[in-house]
């Protein structure tokens, strides 16, 4: 595992949920999912009732998680892009995912699990100048945040 992949895994471990993205019948969709990192892969749990797992199984997906809504002084976003397969997790993996929701959109939650094997990993970190706005809700002094640098790191 490269240092960038290690950094991505470390950041992903800081938040419990992310977004799974792919296409279904040529239309893009994004679904919320719970995740854990298992080795070099990402294991996600989502609601079977959506049927999204059928579009993902055997295909290329992107999984993104971030701390953008937390008010952190250094916002970041991690994306894993790779192939997904429906799997049955181990008991340890199920325990690591924690309790499942009871309902989703008013329907009983039925879990389905996907293991994403990344082919491409990216980390985006936004760094702000001292004293500038760091959250989307805070007004910027010049009409937009003053980015001192935007770091993009890619690992294959």
Low-confidence stretches: 138-156
Query: What is the overall shape?
Result: globular
Question: How large is the radius of gyration?
Answer: 17 Å
N-to-C SSE string, H for helix and E for strand: HEEEHEEHEEEE
Helix content: 10-25%
Distance between the termini: 9 Å
Bin the strand percentage. Answer: over 45%
The DSSP helix count reads: 3
Give the beta-strand count.
9
Spatial strand arrangement across the major sheet:
1-2-3-8-5-4
Mean pLDDT: 84
Structural class: mainly beta
User: What's the story with the biggest beta sheet?
Assistant: 6 strands, antiparallel, barrel
Structural write-up:
14% of the residues lie in helices and 49% in strands. It has 156 residues and is mainly beta. Strands 1-2-3-8-5-4 form a six-stranded antiparallel β-barrel. The longest helix is centred in the first third of the chain and has 10 residues, at 3-12. Mean pLDDT is 84; it is low at 138-156.
Which helices and strands appear, and what pairs or packs with what?
Blueprint: H1 3-12, E1 17-24, E2 27-38, E3 41-47, H2 52-56, E4 60-66, E5 76-87, H3 91-97, E6 103-104, E7 107-108, E8 111-128, E9 147-155
Antiparallel strand pairs: 1-2, 1-4, 2-3, 3-8, 4-5, 5-8, 6-7, 8-9
What labels describe this entry?
156 residues, mainly beta, 6-stranded antiparallel beta barrel, two-stranded antiparallel sheet, 3 helices, 14% helix, disordered C terminus
